[in-house]
Amino acid sequence: MDSRFKKFKILGAAALLSAALGGHAVAATCGNNASGFNTWVGQFKQEAARAGISQKTLDRAFKNVRYATKTISADRNQKSFKLSFDQFMRKRGASTIISKGKRLKAQNAGLFAALEKKYGVPPGPLIAIWGMETGFGSFMGNQHTVSAVATLAYDCRRSAFFTEQLYALMQLIQKGWLSPDFKGAAHGEIGQTQFLPANVARFGVNGDGSGGVNLASKADALASTANFLRGHGWRRGGGYQPGEVNFRAIQGWNAAGVYQKAIAKIGAEIDG
Q1: Taking the model in full, what pTM does it have?
Q2: Contact predicate 121/234, CB 8 Å
Q3: What is the CATH number of domain 81-140+201-271?
Q4: How confident is the chain (272 residues) per 10-residue block, as mean pLDDT?
Q5: Which residue ranges does the chain devote to CATH 1.10.530.10?
Q6: CA triplet 164, 136, 71: central angle to 5 degrees?
Q7: Alpha helices (H) along the chain
Q8: pLDDT confidence of residue 79
C-alpha cells in the first residue's frame, strides 16, 4: 500500500452516504439474487460520484466486477460458527495453531515485545488471530475484493454494513492503497489478519518502520491488529478470558461467540 496511508483520514461512510443521498437522490435498491446486481452497481456509482469518489476511480474499481456467487454461498453457509466449542477447536486446527504459534512467538520475540510495549497487547491473542484467520499468512484469500464487497452491499441481508465497507474500499482505491483487482477473502477481508476495508482505514498502522501500511506484511498486520484491540478497549495488563476486562476487545474482532472463546483459549495456551 501507498506510504501516504498513515497520513490520510478517510471520510466516514456515513458522511459519504449522506452526501450521496442529498437532495432528491434515491439509494440503490438491494436484492437477493444476481438479477438486479448490474442495475444496483450503476445506481451505486452515481451515488458515490455525488459523494466525492472520482469517476476514474469508479470506472477502474468496477471494470471487472461481477456478482460474487462464492461470497453469497460463504455468507449463507457459516456452519462452523454453530458448532460446539470443542468441535470448533478441532475443526479449526487449534492444536496446530497453538504449537506453531509458540514457535512463531519465539522466532519473532522482538516484534511481539515491541507490540506489547506500544499497544499493551501480549503475543497470545495476536498470534491466535493470525493463525485462525489465515494460517499465519499462508492463505489470505483468492476472491476479487471489490466484487465480494459490492455483492454483499447489494445483498439485502447486511446491505447497510457492507455499503459502508464499499465506500471505504473506494477511498482506499482512490488513494492508491489497493489495486482495483486486489484479491482477499470471501467477505472482502484483507491481509494476514483479515481486516475489512473500513477497519483498514481506522486501525491500519506500520509495524516494520517502512513508512507505509501493507496488511500482507506480517509486521503491519500484527501491529494493526494490536491497534484494533487497543481501539476496542484493551487494557494493558488485564486478562482476556471470558468475563475478564479484555475479552470485550476480542468480541470486537468477531461477532461469533465460539470464535471469541477460541481466540481467548488459543492465546492463553500460547502465552503460557
Answers
A1: 0.85
A2: yes
A3: 1.10.530.10
A4: 32 51 56 95 95 96 96 82 89 97 98 98 98 97 97 96 95 87 94 95 89 86 98 98 98 94 98 94
A5: 81-140+201-271
A6: 40
A7: 13-20, 37-50, 55-61, 69-76, 85-91, 94-107, 109-119, 123-134, 145-154, 159-174, 197-203, 218-231, 247-253, 257-271
A8: 65
